[in-house]
């Protein structure tokens, strides 16, 4: 399953400037997702991180993983349960391996480790040019559908 930005926004409440994934290139509900983020110099965070040496903040790489995981978690729910908010609860084993800079394409892979009725644990990795740049375990909880 491939999703463009318009379809991604049906799963996530995030909007510019805080939606951090541009496309879903593969999604297998209850298993994994592969998303991409095209990193451009136009990103608002590059104005201050860091002038003259722009580097994507690590916390935003983890947030991009969490957003991809949010799409995966939502798509893994039965249709009638989709649409509820998913709240990022925590992260473990976070490691940053290489800087991400303007012009890079971040490829994010997230897999479900454990899923319960109200919570989910996932493993995420991010690559640029097939080189690992970040990894983390992510936890989220499901809100009630309004």
Structure in words:
It is built from two helices and six strands; from the N terminus they run H-E-E-H-E-E-E-E. The mean pLDDT is 94. It has helices at 5-11, 58-75, and strands spanning 23-28, 32-38, 86-96, 105-115, 119-128, 131-142. Strand 5 and strand 6 (131-142) form a beta hairpin. By secondary structure, it is an alpha+beta fold. The two termini are 27 Å apart. The longest helix has 18 residues, at 58-75. It has a single domain, classed as Hotdog Thioesterase (Thiol Ester Dehydrase, Chain A, Roll).
Q: Which keywords apply here?
A:
146 residues
Instruction: Let me know the number of strands.
Output: 6
Q: In the residues, how many domains can be counted?
A: 1
Total number of helices: 2
Strand residues, percent:
35-45%
| Strands in their spatial order, largest beta sheet | 1-2-4-5-6-3
Largest sheet report: 6 strands, antiparallel
Please estimate the helix content: 10-25%
Within the CATH hierarchy, at the fold level, what is the topology? Thiol Ester Dehydrase, Chain A
Stretches where pLDDT falls below 50 for ≥5 residues?
none
Assembly level:
single chain
| CATH top level class name | Alpha Beta
Q: What characteristic shape results from the CA principal axes?
A: globular
- Cα distance, first to last residue? 27 Å
Alpha-beta classification? alpha+beta
Can you tell me the CATH architecture? Roll
CATH level-4 homologous superfamily: Hotdog Thioesterase
Order of helices and strands: HEEHEEEE
Average per-residue pLDDT, rounded, comes to: 94
Give the C-alpha Rg: 15 Å
């Amino acid at each position: 399953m491939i999703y463009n930005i318009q379809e991604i926004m049906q799963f996530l409440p995030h909007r510019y400037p805080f939606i951090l994934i541009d496309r879903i290139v593969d999604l297998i509900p209850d298993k994994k997702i592969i998303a991409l983020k095209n990193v451009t110099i136009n990103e608002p965070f590059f104005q201050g991180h860091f002038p003259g040496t722009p580097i994507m903040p690590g916390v935003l790489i983890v947030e991009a993983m969490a957003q991809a995981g949010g799409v995966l978690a939502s798509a893994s729910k039965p249709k009638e349960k989709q649409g509820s908010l998913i709240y990022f609860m925590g992260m473990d084993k976070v490691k940053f391996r290489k800087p991400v800079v303007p012009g890079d394409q971040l490829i994010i892979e997230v897999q479900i480790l454990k899923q319960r009725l109200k919570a989910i644990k996932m493993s995420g990795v991010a690559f640029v040019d097939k080189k690992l740049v970040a990894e983390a375990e992510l936890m989220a909880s499901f809100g009630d559908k309004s």
